[in-house]
TrEMBL record:
It comes from the Bacteria. Keywords: Membrane, Transmembrane, Transmembrane helix. It comes from Leuconostoc aquikimchii. This is Ribonuclease G. The keyword Transmembrane applies. The chain crosses the membrane at residues 33-53, 86-108.
Length: 113
């Protein structure tokens, strides 16, 4: 996608954790509204990953960045926040499944006694 005749430098392309984890808010903050498609149920499962892969390109095309260094500095904040959120989400999910497994095992063991 080459919007507004803006060429995307190779240094800009790559994964964006902010666009992946905070897709809707990231999209609004970067003036690119394709991440709003994450509001569509079922479709959003795939679109989260599309946002992560294409986010930097969309932000570059819609933004008014003077150079790649400035762009990367802005997106670095989004990337850090997104990565931290991803780690927290995975940790909470692991703890949840361990907790539920413990409860189910406890219930099953108590019914056999």
């Amino acid at each position: 996608m080459n919007e507004n005749g803006t060429n995307v430098p190779a240094e800009v392309k790559g994964w964006n954790w902010g666009a992946f984890m905070f897709n809707i808010f990231w999209g609004i903050g970067n003036k690119t509204y394709l991440p709003l498609l994450c509001l569509i149920p079922i479709f959003n499962i795939v679109w989260f990953f599309v946002c992560g892969f294409k986010g930097n390109e969309w932000a570059w095309q819609k933004g008014d960045y003077a150079d790649v260094k400035t762009f990367k500095a802005v997106q670095a904040t989004w990337n850090r926040a997104g990565l931290v959120q991803f780690i927290i989400t995975v940790a909470v999910m692991v703890l949840y499944f361990l907790f539920m497994g413990t409860i189910i095992t406890s219930i099953l063991n108590s019914t056999h006694n």
